[in-house]
Amino acid sequence: MQHCWERKLLIEIAQLNGANADVSTLTKLPYLNAVCCETLRIYPVGMLTFPRRVEKPVKLCGWNLEPGTLLYGSIYLTHQREDLYPEPKKFKPERFLERQFSPYEFLPFGGGVRRCIGAAFALLEMKVALVKILSEYSLLLVGNDEVELKRRGERDGACISYKYGSYR
């Protein structure tokens, strides 16, 4: 069974004329970009932003925070906000065609001065790999199991990955 998003993406990829596609062409494909952004929204590589240290006493959302307290933003939870992303668990690339999200709403590579320096390269890599795979293979979803995530990283919290690997 082919998903609607997959059909749309294959049509866009077919217009590339195979070998004539170059890097600059890939960056201009709107639906490919939307699919990659939606993937990064649902499964961001980084789970948390870099910490910020409270400088002076402050009250935030009803909490009294003392100097020295570390604050982390949750990229994963931001991307799951129903007010920003209706039906957040659903894979809907069209949401990235319908509106432009602010850097505070969509931040798969972090934000500000600490934004991942390799963000553009990582997104390009993702697009090249996806186009290559879909151009040469037909993919089939074997099961409809929900993907379980686990925290991983130096302190089991910075990054997320599939609990059982990318395949079983």
TrEMBL record:
The keyword tRNA-binding does not apply. Its cofactor is heme. Keywords: Heme, Iron, Metal-binding, Monooxygenase, Oxidoreductase. InterPro entries: Cyt_P450, Cyt_P450_CS, Cyt_P450_E_grp-I, Cyt_P450_sf, Cytochrome_P450_3A. Heme binds at residue 116. GO terms for molecular function: heme binding; iron ion binding; oxidoreductase activity, acting on paired donors, with incorporation or reduction of molecular oxygen; steroid hydroxylase activity. Cytochromes P450 are a group of heme-thiolate monooxygenases. They oxidize a variety of structurally unrelated compounds, including steroids, fatty acids, and xenobiotics. Belongs to the cytochrome P450 family. This is Cytochrome P450. It comes from Dulcicalothrix desertica PCC 7102.
